[in-house]
């Protein structure tokens, strides 16, 4: 398997709290990789340092053999890492189409001056961006809502729109932070189908999710964090059998 992303002994501290301690893992190209653990285990912190929202205090992230620029979100997106958020962060007063177009502009070349002057290059590029945004909306299943203002979409469709906006950046790695949170069973099944389609189309997915059934039924491999440390990594079956994981997380799930 080809390694797409590797974290090497990543550390993060907030004051006196050690949020991540020497977290090392490898995500292979084309897989769905799950990151689970109890509340406060460090999952979202890991996402935030990976995507540049927080600087790291030690270690490094390597993407395709190149170290990612720590603490620089726009440059990390340019390297092919895109994310969604546990709490939906859309441009709520823009349409679904406009939200996706906004995501795509990191890949455009016309520049600010070209946009302001509406140069021929800028106009042609805008046409292509619009067409691509419509394709992505269709891909995630909400093409019929292209002209709907984001805040008027259903909760499940807002989740899909956030994925669409991330896809517009043309990522190699799509990091999804609790995408099934708040979804009903039908919406969750649809999300699973979408993630399976992403994998089939060659997009690597890093998934944080509290829905253990979804993680274990979908992911190729899973890592488990507890108190900021990786305590297990392997296939879903291997992780489910790990005594430390059962004590830290899955044991509580199985008890209900």
How is the CATH topology of the largest domain named? Answer: Rossmann fold
If you compute it from the alpha carbons, what radius of gyration comes out, rounded to the nearest whole angstrom? 19 Å
Give me the count of strands: 10
CATH architecture of the largest domain: 3-Layer(aba) Sandwich
Q: Which range best describes the helical content: under 10%, 10-25%, 25-40%, 40-55%, 55-70% or over 70%? A: 40-55%
* Count of folded domains: 2
Shape: globular
Describe the model:
It comes from Thauera sinica. With 256 residues, the chain is of the alpha/beta class. It folds into two domains: 3-80 and 171-255, P-loop containing nucleotide triphosphate hydrolases (Rossmann fold, 3-Layer(aba) Sandwich), CATH 3.40.50; 92-157, no CATH class. It contains ten helices and ten strands. A hairpin with a 2-residue loop joins strand 1 and strand 2 (17-28). Helix 3 packs across helix 5 (120-140), helix 3 packs parallel to helix 6 and helix 5 (120-140) crosses helix 6 (155-167). Mean pLDDT is 88; it is low at 252-256.
């Amino acid at each position: 398997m080809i390694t797409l992303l590797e974290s090497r002994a990543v550390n993060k501290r907030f004051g006196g709290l050690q949020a991540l301690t020497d977290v090392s893992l490898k995500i292979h190209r084309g897989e769905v990789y799950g990151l689970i653990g109890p509340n406060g285990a460090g999952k979202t912190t890991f996402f935030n340092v990976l995507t540049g929202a927080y600087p790291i205090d030690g270690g490094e992230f390597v993407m395709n053999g190149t170290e990612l620029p720590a603490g620089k979100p726009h440059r990390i997106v340019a390297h092919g890492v895109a994310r969604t958020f546990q709490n939906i962060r859309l441009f709520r007063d823009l349409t679904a189409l406009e939200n996706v177009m906004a995501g795509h502009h990191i890949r455009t070349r016309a520049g600010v001056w070209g946009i302001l002057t509406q140069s021929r290059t800028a106009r042609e590029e805008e046409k292509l961006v619009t067409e691509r945004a419509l394709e992505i909306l269709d891909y995630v299943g909400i093409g019929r809502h292209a002209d709907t203002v984001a805040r008027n979409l259903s909760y499940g469709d807002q989740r899909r729109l956030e994925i669409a906006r991330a896809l517009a950046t043309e990522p190699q790695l799509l990091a999804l932070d609790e995408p099934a949170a708040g979804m009903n069973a039908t919406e969750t099944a649809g999300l699973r189908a979408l993630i399976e389609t992403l994998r089939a189309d060659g997009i690597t997915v890093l998934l944080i999710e509290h829905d253990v059934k979804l993680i274990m039924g979908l992911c190729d491999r899973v890592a488990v964090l507890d108190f900021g440390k990786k305590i297990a990594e392997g296939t879903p079956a291997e992780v489910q059998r790990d005594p430390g994981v059962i004590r830290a997380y899955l044991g509580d799930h199985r008890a209900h």
